[in-house]
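Give me structure tokens for this 110-residue protein.
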Amino acid sequence: DVKINDTVKVNLATGKIEDHIKFGVGNLVMVTAGRNLGRVGLLKHIEKHPGAADSVSVEDLAGQTFSTQIENIFSIGSGKKALVTLPRGAGIRLSIVEEKAQRERRANKA
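Here you go.
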């Protein structure tokens, strides 16, 4: 019952499938390629384009919406619960101003 774009969690020691996540709207996804590389968010909409690349709309945990090709994402959890450990910053892209303020706060602490 595993279909294309589904994610499979495999136990490397035994080689057995422990869990799988069906690909669909409402799942937590991570972007693995393109301009939005590393971002994490909820899959909001899938647009089918016959004869061209399908695209998806994703809303990150900060509420910003972005689009990417379906080939650039994979599911990492159902709902808002991730089956993997998220990267530092939880996959949220900061603006240049927010990034600078964060660097300054870190410099002031040291």
